[in-house]
Amino acid sequence: MGLDILFIIKAIIMGIVEGITEFIPVSSTGHLILTGSIINFRGDFADMFEVVIQLGAILAVVVLYWEKIRDSVVDFFQYIFTKGKEGEVGFRFGINVIVGTIPAVIFGGILHDKIKKILFGPEPVVIAFLVGGILLIIIENKFRKNKHAIRDIDKITPMQSLKIGLFQCLAMWPGMSRSASTIMGGWVAGLSTSIAAEYSFFLAIPAMVGSSGLDLIKFDYSQMNLTNALALAIGFIVSFIVALIVMRRFINYLKKRPMRVFAVYRIGAGIVFGILIFLKVISV
């Protein structure tokens, strides 16, 4: 069987969408579901493809924050082996990431299959776009201007991490956005916007790798062919490159400007996608 060029083009489009939306508060999963419906990129392979390109975006976090990740891992084990004499900063950061991940592990493990069955569709995504946009406006207005907000990622406490982790569970509803959920959790927990965003990047690594692992284990690989394999490779690379570019610009943006623009976009996109569903341009 020869290569399906149109299929490869669709894979590139999906990779670009993933890279742009993964780390900004607009929901990558929601955009992938809606984009897949519009360009007819759906089915079992499409579901697995979305998981793989999300891992491409996660690789961008590892590359961008490699020194922090490496030093924290080294410090974590150094603290253990020296019985607390060295590596305290990295150990504390590692514990925070673990604590922040626990809620997603518990609720994700219990609800993963039900969420996939009930909420992974265009209509629930549109509703989540609207709900998430409204929540962003309300919570940002109340907490963003906190003069005592933490502006050092190593000063976050385990209790703050737990609060952020609980908010991260909102992202199990496609369209809510993991980035938006954790940033809102960061505001409520007392973090500055840029630190909340950066911390959301780190929390994404275990959360998304764990969730992706469950999906990849369940996939039927007998349907793989040359076109599918090439689509996976290209989609992964595209999402990685685009995510790396977007992450840098997103953090710089948050240091100067509020997130209201993303909330307005979410509400506007929710209305537009809702109309497209009503007109049956997007199939449910």
UniProtKB/TrEMBL annotation:
Its main location: membrane. GO terms for molecular function: undecaprenyl-diphosphatase activity. GO terms for biological process: cell wall organization; peptidoglycan biosynthetic process; regulation of cell shape; response to antibiotic. It is an enzyme of class 3 (hydrolase). It catalyses: di-trans,octa-cis-undecaprenyl diphosphate + H2O = di-trans,octa-cis-undecaprenyl phosphate + phosphate + H(+). It holds the Pfam family BacA. It is a multi-pass membrane protein. Its EC number is 3.6.1.27. It comes from the Bacteria. InterPro entries: UppP. The chain crosses the membrane at residues 7-28, 48-66, 93-112, 118-139, 186-209, 229-251, 263-282. It is found in: Cell membrane. Keywords: Antibiotic resistance, Cell membrane, Cell shape, Cell wall biogenesis/degradation, Hydrolase, Membrane, Peptidoglycan synthesis, Transmembrane, Transmembrane helix. Belongs to the UppP family. Catalyzes the dephosphorylation of undecaprenyl diphosphate (UPP). Confers resistance to bacitracin. Bacitracin is thought to be involved in the inhibition of peptidoglycan synthesis by sequestering undecaprenyl diphosphate, thereby reducing the pool of lipid carrier available. HAMAP family: Undec_diphosphatase. This is Undecaprenyl-diphosphatase. It comes from Clostridium saccharoperbutylacetonicum N1-4(HMT). The gene is uppP.
